[in-house]
Amino acid sequence: MCKKTMKPIVIFILLSTSTFGFSQDLKLNTELNFFFDNTEFSKSSYTKDQTMAGVQLTQEIGLNFDKKHFIYSGIDAIKNLGSHHFFDDYHLLAYYKMVDKNTLLEIGSFHRHELFDDYSNLFFQDSINFYKHTVDGVFLKKGDKDQFLKLWLDWTGLQSATERESFYVGLSGHKNFGKFFFANFQSYMYHFATTRPNPLDLSVVDNLQGQFSIGFNYTDKPQNHHFSTSIGLMSGFERDRKLMDDYKTPLGIVITSKYDYKGFGTENILYYGQKRLTLYEKYGNELYWGNPFLRGGNYFQNKLYWTWIENDKIEGQLSARTHFSEGKLFFEQMLTLNIAINNDKQPKKKATFWERIFSNTETEPEQLSF
Fold it and tell me: How far apart are CA 189 and CA 45, in angstroms?
């Protein structure tokens, strides 16, 4: 990173520190995330063979007023391992946050970490977590761990002469029924519009995805056993508006299972249904942030993992994955380490069973260009 780029970052941090330094309600949030993801996908027609490795740092400074209201500013930066740049990418953070017993509201430019844990890696591939750390828009969650609704907007492209307008609108929910059963859904609509002016006569494209599931969960805390499974229907609507009569509505069944014992475990996802991401050849990652293996229809993923450290501030995991697609087996190895030191939160609670099934969306690491 050049000196001209570093100067505004340093000034921003100094100004933020001096602005909030007078207050006894100063809040400091620091997060460090390391990832190393080696994929062996060279024989795949649907995704890339690559290794992604880097370290990401988020530093926020905030002011708390009226107990449940916060204003934050900060920076989110990433450095790829082996890169000769000071930072390979960075984003400024500035947002309002409101927290009470049953509400979380964030407005502005904020970190996406943990906000979308209920979405599976069929919706968001690995590179989203690795390289797209921020949300520019609004996030609202109402409810608690037993039942909740989430509504969110992420503005991903500012319309200009060279950039197409684009944004996500998402809705998800979850409800427990008694001690063992649950139902939930996840959905989003991605709107991929045109440039302005539009000399190339680009068309507006829509990508809608949704999944509804029911499941069973069992946890034996004294013995450190955890088992959960679910079955659901995944639907979609994909359309290029230039071809109004040529749209796709793919359907498929999604079956998941997870077993965990003292940090050792396995997670499995089976998709059985029609081919998805039908416009991928034309639009690629500009339109689709989901799992590229779904382009082939039927798909199975197995993950074996060891969570070698986990407490309120740090979590480290080593995992091996097997993917079955195109009649072939593909392999992947991953090491992640996440550290969070925050003084505006209570100690981190264990995730719900559904969140743990789909936490760390670690599949299909096709690096995006943001």
Answer: 26
